[in-house]
Amino acid sequence: MKKNKPLISVIAILFIFSCKNEVDLKSVEEEVMQVEKNFSAMSANEGYKKAFASFGADDMVVLSRGGEPHIGKDDYLTPDNKAQLDFVLTWTPLHASAAKSGDMVSVFGEWLIKTKLESGKDTSMFGNYLTVWRKNKSGEWKFIMDGGTVTPGPTDPALVEKLKMLAEKNR
Questions:
Q1: Which pTM value belongs to this model?
Q2: pLDDT tens for residues 49-62?
Q3: Measuring CA to CA, which residue among 55, 25, 49 is closest to residue 37?
């Protein structure tokens, strides 16, 4: 029996290291959904530029409607791109999907821009967005890609349920 102890030890060590660490994707998705909510809250309270600067990775890409994408945080924050418009941008994450590795997550959601016209009338603009998040070396989630589209109104809840159902089916 003593002759087998080293062999059993080697087998046990190999077994331990061969077991894959399963990532709890639901927890990762919930974590990033909360990051998205914090990101939106900062945009509402401190302005969207400050929020994008805080939550964006240095190599982020932000797609712009009708223009060239902003490549990198520095490009996004350059004076030429700092339109000082009087509006509040908020969003609601509706669905997250994590990569099996647990270090990247895409989030689909809806955004809302509220602004006041010169006439004093409040206006609202709606849309959907897709943001891709990556966990950095410090363990923080930073977005690396953000883009969206305009819609006529809030997102139909049936579409969100369809997305969730398809995502679960393809896990």
A1: 0.80
A2: 899 999 999 999 99
A3: 55
